[in-house]
From TrEMBL:
It comes from Phocaeicola barnesiae. The lineage of its organism: Bacteria, Pseudomonadati, Bacteroidota, Bacteroidia, Bacteroidales. Keywords: Glycoprotein, Hydrolase, Signal. Residues 1-21 form the signal peptide. Its EC number is 3.2.1.55. This is non-reducing end alpha-L-arabinofuranosidase. It is an enzyme of class 3 (hydrolase). The keyword Transcription does not apply. It comes from the Bacteria. Residues 459-648 form the Alpha-L-arabinofuranosidase C-terminal domain. InterPro entries: Alpha-L-AF_C (IPR010720), ASD1_cat (IPR055235), CenC_carb-bd (IPR003305), Galactose-bd-like_sf (IPR008979), GH (IPR017853), Glyco_hydro_b (IPR013780), Glycosyl_Hydrolase_51 (IPR051563).
Amino acid sequence: MNKHFTFLGALALSAGLTLQAQNVNQLVVQANKLGAEIQPTLYGHFFEDINFGADGGLYAELIKNRSFEFPDKFAGWEIFGNVTLQDDGPFKRNPHYVRLGNPGHMHKHTGLENGGFFGIGLKANEKYRFTVWARGENQKISVELIDNASMGESQVITQQEVAINSKEWKKYEVILTSPVTFEKAHLRIFLTTPGTLDLEHVSLFPTDTWKGRENGLRKDLVQALVDTKPGVFRFPGGCIVEGTDLATRYNWKNSVGPVEDRPLNENRWHYSFPYRFFPDYFQTYGMGFYELFLLAEDMGAEPLPVVSCGLACQFQNDNPEAHVKVCDLGSYIQDALDLIEFANGSTDTRWGKLRADMGHPAPFNLKFIAVGNEQWGPEYPEHLKPFVEAIRKAYPDIHIIGSSGPNSEGDQFDYLWPEMKKLKVDLVDEHFYRPEDWFLKSGNRYDNYDRKGPKVFAGEYACHGKGKKWNHFEASLLEAAFLTGVERNADVVYMATYAPLLAHVEGWQWRPDLIWFDNLRSVRSCSWYVQSLYGHNKGTNVVPLTMDKQPVSGQEGQNGLFASAVWDEPTQTYIVKVTNVSDKTQKLNVEFKGLKKSVQLGEGTCTTLHSDNLDAENTLDNPNLIVPKESKISIENNVLNTEIGAKTFAVYKFVKTTK
């Protein structure tokens, strides 16, 4: 009886252990087999002036239409009294200015008022630099920041007087300090003396810009970019480089030199979506290529400028006459060569000298250039070929990036990849704004890519939920899952950048976006935290990680798990990233195999990103609703036994030590 009971008990115990083992996801990290080197550029940012991302956003200028060059010359302004428009100003490419004259009665007033971009945001006790180019003899203006909706005795928040005392054009400056925080202020200027006065390039910046630069960038937004630890920075955009027509494409040469003389350009995003229409959305080029190169340098990211290949947006142009003929591409090719000279040329070259004159004698050390954006068909390789030939001849060390078109698969994609190989571009830019099921099925997208061809730049991607195309946690979770496959294939994928980057809550055309902001505040989305966790835990080498000898990419039988592992040489750390997209907690057994007996992994950390509500997102009013949480985690004999919660992204880190 006892023997029979013992046998049955042992059998039951064995069955229980087997069942338990079946419920544990066994992950194996081949810790002794360092794989592909991970490029420093693997995770980064892509900036395009969409959603008021530049003027009214990252560019800290607070005045709209400061040079009176919008098609409606007084757009953004209210004028009163004797104000007239003139067109023979001191700046050749921005010739318009305003003349203020006597209103004709001692109790009437002459002046103008600007509401900025959805108002002018002021912070208590902060200083604002007002500058203006002016001419006039013995004239004065009152410069005021006001609250039009005030119920107080005065609308004025702060005020300073500026004396104008020159017959010739001269730049004047005054500092205003705001005693209050207010999101919707206006700038008002009164002529306070009899006579005539001319004003041009009316500007207002916070003095506390990023690094204190006068023509500076908004500090909190730059900090949000820096904090993800980006390795590459693509700019100035995609579609705006193409232009709705070539006349309004982004022209980098118009974006450098004195800021007062950079000509206005149309922004195609003001009319691309009639259901999100912003007719007063233009590009002043105040944040031009010089400022964007500086920003890349500040972030420690490789600059990656995009230039036009002579094809206007093909979505918007069926007529071949809308594009430059291949035989007429000379000036476009020269623009690309001159851009490289601007970035890298010595100060005795034309464009290198301009860079030095703007304040940066040292080269920007440009290594990459992209030619074209979401082009397709035979027109694109035909246009790209002469660019490749000219750049290879003049600058053989520059890496050239081509495109696979606007889609992540399909006829256009399948046609362009072989064409890019024929042209021997260094990287191919892939774009995918796709729904949830695409991301769930694409964890192994790059596993079978050609290892000998051009490398991949995943230049624009984001999960766009079906029926909920806005920021929400589930979309970010699926992006985290997808990126394990990007990381596992770091020998093929050299760069990846989410898009779009920035959006003003009152001026957006496209969502989801990485960072949202209003005039005073900004919020980092759940997708931002995914990017940051990858950027800060990139590592230096891929390490093989498998489950039943297969990559962990959400395959059948893998219980909704996606995973990758890397080794970081400077910190001697193994980093394992696991995303659980299932609705159940999953047990993990992670074994670090191949380590010498003298090597031991010590106590580590586990950082998780999770939300019970899959539709939840961080907001301006609740910016920390969903943020990573870090805790200590133990490991025994180089084996981690733990659990990962449902709908959770986790990063596990263990430092290698010697016994």
